């Protein structure tokens, strides 16, 4: 197991380097530092001197990848005194630099990760439990009217845009019924009243697609030979579903569940923006609107790292769910 984890982590290094290089090309070659300066300063009446000053203040005045004029030991300065090393490679050490407004990006990420997790973790856990329970209920009453109308409800729910749930929930629950605040955030236990509505909407918005997918998995498992054997031995239908079908369906469930875990740390772009939650999702939206490419680059890099770790966690969870799976 340890050797497998180390090997997978070593495999992740060239992948992250490739993602980092592609991101760098998109941000600095397709969209050059001169273009960034013009967008920040204003395209009209911007002088070359103002562009050079803007680039120098942010470290964009160096060559992109290779500095032919640099002088250093063993020629390393040719690589280190470049925009690629200072703006991209330093992120591997956790140095994300500063945003265009001067704030430290790493500090902002640490500060905003808490609100994102406060929404994402309850939504993830409650959504998973409700979706699996609803799917098992439909399978238990399969080929009945309850199953039919349950599938129709799932299709209808997954066909509706997430914006409808957010706006409709804010209007009905917060504005009409006045049960919770419509938006905002607070620290400590006071934050609970601001999190109830976004968590509830997140669970409802994802219920249709998740329950329908889990129902398909359970229906496939329920036709296996081990299920017929369990029934022949006198096991009840509830015992078959919860003790056998659910356990053997954990592999495909974990494939989708663990891969979603990295998104918990990144936050929800729509939810945080509409509810005024100061998380990583709203931080990314603010950076995109302000054309703050330093923040966007940092969020893309963190997302890549978390996704690779999520895939590794998926493989490890397979062995916990099914001892027959071996990691070599």
Which key phrases capture this entry?
328 residues, mainly alpha, MetI-like fold, 15 helices, 72% helix
Q: Would you mind describing this structure in some detail?
A:
The protein is mainly α. The chain has a domain at 106-321: Orthogonal Bundle (MetI-like fold). The chain has helices at residues 2-30, 33-41, 48-58, 77-80, 83-87, 105-140, 145-159, 162-176, 192-221, 225-232, 237-248, 250-266, 269-275, 280-289, 293-321. α13 (269-275) packs across α14 (280-289). The longest helix is centred in the middle third of the chain and has 36 residues, at 105-140. It starts with a helix and ends in a 7-residue tail after the last helix.
Question: What can be said about this structure in brief?
Answer:
By secondary structure, the chain is mainly alpha-helical.
Q: How would you state the average pLDDT, rounded?
A: 86
C-alpha geometry: globular
The strand count comes to: 0
Kindly report the name of the CATH homologous superfamily of one domain. Answer: MetI-like
- Work out the strand percent: under 5%
Most strands sheet: none
Helix proportion range: over 70%
State the CATH class of one domain: Mainly Alpha
What are the SSEs and their pairings?
Layout: H1 2-30, H2 33-41, H3 48-58, H4 77-80, H5 83-87, H6 105-140, H7 145-159, H8 162-176, H9 192-221, H10 225-232, H11 237-248, H12 250-266, H13 269-275, H14 280-289, H15 293-321
Helix pairs in contact: 1-15, 2-3, 6-9, 6-12, 7-9, 8-9, 10-11, 12-15, 13-14, 14-15
